[in-house]
């Protein structure tokens, strides 16, 4: 697995950290506030655009492309992987059911069950809001496993295994459980307590699309998360 040579500073992407790069993939630590890919109603710069400019090294004639494998919500930070070829993308997509995806989240309240699994069928309405539905034919199965790793009087820090990868899955599951993620302005009724959405993609483990080697990448938890537990 051939590593990429160091890139001159002027070509390095701004606003994100590259955790790993080779001929097949780029793995980054995404900052909160950046869209993964462009939406129809958005004009702001995206991770996909930033990294496409990066691999083209500022050359307007370059035809190099970057392929989206998965997405993180705008306010969610952490590990994100892109493929450098359609072949690599398809290989990653094919194994996505076995890819290990671990998140950290700060939620409101103290959970009665300190670990467990949440399972439901999720559907999206015309206003792009996701919720659980009773009819399996009208939704997609979503499974979220969690455990509490720290508590204060008002908040809990959770380690989450995303066993499926549906839109807004973690945010919806904990909102419906009565413990919405802190500063979730879409799925929480608790109001803002200062700062960004407290959701972070911490680990991603997958088989490299060329070598087949099992790789794990980590993005350290935001220091911001600690502020909820300074006074337990």
What does this molecule look like?
- It is a single chain.
- The protein is mostly beta strands.
- It has one domain: 2-Layer Sandwich (Pseudouridine synthase), CATH 3.30.2350.
- The chain has helices at residues 47-55, 86-94, 169-176, and strands spanning 16-21, 25-30, 67-68, 77-83, 100-108, 115-124, 130-133, 140-151, 155-162, 199-207, 214-218.
- Strands 1, 2, 3, 4, 5, 6, 7, 8, 9, 10 and 11 form an 11-stranded mixed beta sheet that branches.
- Strand 1 and strand 2 form a beta hairpin.
The parts where pLDDT drops under 50 for at least 5 residues are none
CATH architecture: 2-Layer Sandwich
By CATH, the superfamily comes out as: Pseudouridine synthase
**Average of per-residue pLDDT values:** 90
Strand content: 25-35%
Rg measurement, Å: 18 Å
Question: Share of helix among residues?
Answer: 10-25%
> Count the helices. How many?
3
CATH class: Alpha Beta
Here the CATH topology equals: Pseudouridine synthase
The largest sheet, given as strand count, sense and whether it forms a barrel, is:
11 strands, mixed
N→C terminal distance: 46 Å
Shape: globular
The chain-level structural class is mainly beta
